[in-house]
């Protein structure tokens, strides 16, 4: 059974810092890619996102990439589209992980996974 702390061990602010640190720890070519992606930390995945993805539980979604992948980029794409965005969901990650060290690793893995979608990788091709 997943560790469920009585008190939140990692505040929203500290969690957001972990996300920023994960981005800073990426190898330079990947960190450069992150410069064009908006990254947001949300407490939980929105219900409509879970419905759209046909997920039964909010605990099944740790992060989400929204936007066109670099593999789909085109000179002819119409302007006015929002920039790509990665959402990292604090609640599911904290419920999944039993220790602060696991949280740090899961945040990094989730950032890398979502960045993988940005470059055009499918879930089955991801390193995490």
Automatic annotation (TrEMBL):
It comes from Nitrospira moscoviensis. The lineage of its organism: Bacteria, Pseudomonadati, Nitrospirota, Nitrospiria, Nitrospirales. This is Metallopeptidase family protein. It comes from the Bacteria. It holds the Pfam family Zincin_1. InterPro entries: Zincin_1, Zincin_1_sf.
């Amino acid at each position: 059974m997943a560790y469920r702390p009585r008190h939140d061990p990692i505040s929203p602010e500290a969690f957001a810092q972990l996300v920023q640190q994960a981005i800073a720890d990426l190898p330079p070519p990947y960190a450069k890619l992150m410069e064009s992606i908006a990254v947001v930390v949300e407490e939980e995945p929105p219900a409509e996102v879970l419905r759209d993805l046909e997920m039964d539980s909010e605990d099944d979604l740790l992060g989400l990439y929204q936007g066109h992948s670099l593999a789909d980029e085109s000179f002819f794409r119409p302007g006015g589209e929002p920039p790509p965005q990665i959402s990292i969901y604090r609640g599911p990650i904290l419920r999944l992980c039993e220790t602060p060290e696991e949280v740090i690793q899961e945040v990094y893995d989730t950032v890398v996974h979502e960045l993988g979608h940005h470059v055009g990788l499918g879930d089955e091709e991801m390193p995490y």
